[in-house]
Design a protein that fits this description.
The protein is of the alpha/beta class. The protein is 44% helix and 18% strand. α6 packs across α7 and α10 runs parallel beside α12. The strands form 5 sheets. Strands 2-1-3-6-7 form a 5-stranded parallel sheet, with helices on both faces. α4 links the parallel β6 and β7. The protein contains 12 helices and 15 strands.
Length: 306
């Protein structure tokens, strides 16, 4: 079913089209002049799929509806009904954006085909817009898709938090998409053009995690054959995602806390600090508040994210 607006001051055609379109299963709203039709279009833009209007009306022409549609950026197809002698005028109207025209006497079969084509095209265009919107949202939210209240709430929270520089802690069970949320926060932030660097703190041994995060100077330890940047420096200007922060060893949590407070890091084997501009987004599947109360968690959890 489509929702049609018919504009014609000839009551015979007026009634004919109403019955014809209703028999086809469409919802029809009829008007006899441009003024009333324009007012309805302005007030109900989302309730119209197609407009069928006579070229000649008491207070103007059916073509007068085009500026109304364009002014409000409404992509509603308009079909003009014209007398035989005005077909040239209607043909010129095609250049002004009408969908098509049909001449009198009306051939209802031809009109049905024409209207079905217009309605189908509008439906395809709407579906394309929805698809583009979905793809855009997927890119903006890095694969997070959903329309349920909880997902909309999540999207709103991401939008609210993304453009701040505050550190963020994401909690949730394993497999719930915490890294996707972190990536979405990065993508929606002013840091989006810089690096998003992720590391799983539970997957790397302490002695390796420290050098991975902070980097090291040549000769700092056996096997350190050259200077190397750590992940903090790799993420400079962007976002560092620390997954499973609750599994980070207490000593390393203390060093991380210093980074959050001082905005500097020190490579292993160096004596000087290096400034870094990094936003920290952390995630955990653990209940850190309970862990803090039990004193099984280190100060980074209570100081930085409490």
């Amino acid at each position: 079913m489509a929702r049609l607006v018919v504009v014609d001051d000839d009551l015979a055609i007026h009634d004919l089209l109403r019955v014809f379109f209703e028999d086809l299963g469409h919802e029809v709203t009829c008007f006899e002049n441009v003024t009333e039709a324009s007012s309805y279009i302005t007030d109900n833009p989302d309730r119209i799929d197609l407009i069928v209007a006579d070229l000649r009306l008491p207070d103007g022409t059916g073509l007068s509806l085009m500026p109304v549609l364009k002014e409000r950026q409404l992509d509603i197809p308009l079909i003009l009904i014209t007398a035989y002698g005005s077909s040239e005028i209607a043909a010129n109207a095609l250049k002004r954006g009408i969908f098509d025209y049909i001449t009198k006497p009306l051939n209802l079969t031809e009109l049905e085909v024409l209207c079905n084509r217009a309605i189908k095209l509008k439906s395809l265009e709407r579906n394309l817009l929805d698809l583009r919107s979905s793809v855009t949202n997927e890119r903006r939210f890095h694969g997070l898709i959903g329309s349920c209240p909880k997902m909309r709430e999540l999207f709103e929270l991401i939008e609210k938090v993304a453009d701040t520089n505050s550190s963020v802690l994401i909690t949730g069970e394993s497999g719930t998409g915490k890294e996707l949320v972190a990536q979405a926060l990065h993508n929606r932030s002013r840091r989006a053009d810089a690096n998003f660097v992720a590391v799983n703190c539970s997957a790397i041994p302490f002695e390796l995690l420290e050098s991975e995060l902070f980097g090291y100077r040549k000769g700092a330890f056996t096997g350190a054959s050259e200077d190397r940047k750590g992940l903090f420096e790799e993420a400079d200007g962007g976002t560092l995602f620390l997954d499973e922060i609750g599994d980070m060893p207490p000593l390393l949590q203390g060093k991380l806390l210093r980074v959050l407070q001082e905005r500097t890091i020190r490579r292993l084997g160096e004596n000087a600090d290096r400034p870094v501009d990094v936003r920290i987004v952390a995630a955990t599947h653990k209940d850190l508040k309970t862990a803090i109360q039990r004193k099984s968690s280190a100060r980074i959890c209570s100081s930085a994210y409490a």
